[in-house]
Design a protein that fits this description.
434 Repressor (Amino-terminal Domain), single chain, globular, 192 residues, 2 domains, five-stranded antiparallel β-sheet
Length: 192
């Protein structure tokens, strides 16, 4: 079991910010792999990068060497040093914040919600009760019509973390919507 999952997610976010280009196509991952080799003289294959970013499904934990290379890309000695930096940087202190939100406790079964995130991702969800949502419509998303997941809230500007997605009776890996920039659309839908 990997105890560094939030730290890995933050590492990936920081790498994308430093690269200043989104990683969401095969070409993007191939170019970034070449950038690593050129800049650091170290390699991470495009297929490893795709698995790490969740572009292709995989449940394996990344190798420590892979995390070390990405931490070096950010100017840290290794992943352990990056994690220590995260604990002490003031940019990542806990705090209260305000955001447009939809709380599941305010929904009734049958109500629908629209969410979206960059680039051009869209889901229309039907609340089924007991924190369970069904995807009714999906555009440009890895989630598809009929997928089921549980959530307790949706927050504008924040990523949506799902512990699993159920598709055709099978549980899939955890899913994150809006990894970069969070949800950009959040609406209650009035059925009528």
């Amino acid at each position: 079991m990997n105890v560094y999952k939030p730290e890995i997610a933050e590492l990936l976010l920081q790498v994308e910010k430093a690269y200043a280009k989104p990683l969401n196509s095969s070409t993007d991952f191939e170019e970034f792999s070449l950038q690593l080799k050129y800049r650091l003289g170290m390699s991470i294959s495009a297929s490893t990068l795709k698995r790490l970013w969740g572009y292709v499904g995989d449940t394996h934990s990344p190798r420590p060497q892979t995390l070390d290379i990405l931490a070096r890309y950010l100017g840290h000695a290794d992943f352990k040093n990056f994690c220590a930096w995260l604990k002490h940087t003031t940019a990542y202190n806990s705090s209260f914040f305000s955001a447009k939100r939809i709380l599941v406790e305010d929904l009734n079964p049958g109500m629908e919600v629209e969410i979206g995130w960059s680039p051009n991702r869209y889901l229309r969800l039907r609340y089924k009760g007991n924190n369970l949502f069904e995807v009714r419509e999906a555009k440009e998303s890895k989630l598809v019509r009929g997928d089921l997941f549980r959530a307790v809230s949706f927050l504008m500007g924040q990523p949506l973390f799902l512990p699993y997605v159920e598709r055709a009776g099978k549980r899939l890996s955890p899913f994150i919507a809006g990894r970069n920039g969070g949800l950009t659309m959040l609406n209650n839908v009035v059925n009528g």
